[in-house]
Amino acid sequence: MGLLEYMHHSNQQWTMLGQGNDPSSFGLDLKSSTDLHTTFMSPWYDADHATLHNIPVTFKQKTEYCIPSVRPIQQVTEKMSLDSLFVMFYANPRDALQELAARELYKRQWRFHKNLQLWLCKESGTDLVGQSATCERGSYHFFDPTTWNSFQKEYTVMYDALEIRDNEWYQQ
């Protein structure tokens, strides 16, 4: 009902809001092969008065917004802290960034436990308490994303519960 009120209003500007206009009536050439943003500022732009209002005809990006030498994130992950890698992993589900974070965590000897849905890593400088063909027991660091803390715990790791890359538990 509100749209009909605009379409049948006595004020032509209000009527224009309800019915719409042909873009070519604003001077917009839809068949042009050039970028439209360089030739069309707005429907209310008046080329005759542009110099009076100091309206720039073309857009130029300010140099302070240009960042000339940003390295690709693939080259930066190796220098990221563990917290940054975990943020990258958990904040980007099913994304290439999540995969990059996972690869770097694997390089740092972290493994993802599929059942617990937690990352874990062997405690450095400690020996395994026990080991078999299917599991090992030892001291591990776990990262819990719900509390955003890591904790140490003696745990028996079943190899088939881990998401393993290259069919190895650790490459040492």
Automatic annotation (TrEMBL):
Residue stretches making up the NOT2/NOT3/NOT5 C-terminal domain: 38-162
Pfam families documented for this protein: NOT2_3_5_C
Keywords carried by this UniProt record: Transcription, Transcription regulation
Signal peptide feature range: none
InterPro entries: CCR4-NOT_su2/3/5_C_sf, Not2/3/5, NOT2/3/5_C
Family: Belongs to the CNOT2/3/5 family.
Protein name per Swiss-Prot or TrEMBL: NOT2/NOT3/NOT5 C-terminal domain-containing protein
Organism of this sequence: Phycomyces blakesleeanus
